[in-house]
Amino acid sequence: MTENGDVTPLVQMENVNKHFGALHVLKDINLTVSRGEVLVVIGPSGGGKSTLCRTINRLETIDGGKIVFDGQVLPEEGKGLARLRSEVGMVFQSFNLFAHKTIRENVTLGPTKVRRQARAAADTRAMELLERVGIAAQADKYPAQLSGGQQQRVAIARALAMDPKMILFDEPTSALDPEMVQEVLDVMIGLARDGMTMMVVTHEMGFARRAANRVVFMADGQIVEENTPDEFFTNAQTERARDFLSKILTH
CATH code at 207? Predict the structure, then answer.
């Protein structure tokens, strides 16, 4: 329950289906995400994890079923969709920063263009967020001058600048060199502690154990199992999940 007593989930997915041609990538998905919850989605590659994540802000359309965000069925297009996207932050595997804009400009672009925020206010907020993710000193550099880990932290600051109700993370560390992964995960763990609603598709099992309220295991386009991190990692209920864990936790 949130402070105002709202117990309705922020996200409700009901019988969601998605095809890419003959490939059935999401099969009758039923899932809720509560306000303030950190939901971590794991599973083998090609299991539908990223597609699931991308349907919540309609980067991927669905072929059947229903997705409700904050009490509203996802709009198909137009202003309603733009409003939805401004309320759902997204952090991608590739950082998707504008190469010709400084770090500060990347972070202020959404608030000034979409939210019509005054430049001075957006600048102040951008610097607060860059401080929060540990790269305020890089504000006037360009993305190419930053490491991958720093660029991903800019992407997180950019998502936060829109004051979203939720942030989707689609494998945010998989493009990073190993030594940069932890600096990004640390920022995400901080967000989780602050109560940000998050859906995180990741291969980082340590993050799932530390930060998740719930782990969802997907394979072959279906949710095979969901549980608390403790229960999932120590007492997986399905053969499919146990097989997956035996392969990744022994390496």
Answer: 3.40.50.300
Verdict on whether the full-model pTM lies above 0.85: yes
pLDDT tens-digit profile, the chain (251 residues): 444 556 789 999 999 999 999 999 999 999 999 999 999 999 998 889 999 999 998 889 999 999 999 988 887 777 778 888 888 999 998 888 999 999 999 999 988 988 888 889 999 999 999 999 999 999 999 999 999 999 999 999 999 999 999 999 999 998 888 888 999 999 999 999 999 999 999 999 999 999 999 999 999 999 999 999 999 999 999 999 999 998 887 65
Residue 44 lies in a domain: yes
Sign of the torsion formed by the C-alpha atoms of 107, 109, 110 and 111: positive
Rounded Cα distance between 158 and 104, Å, is: 9
Q: Tokens standing for 199?
A: 């859906």
Range of the domain at 87: 11-248
* Within-domain flag for 104: yes
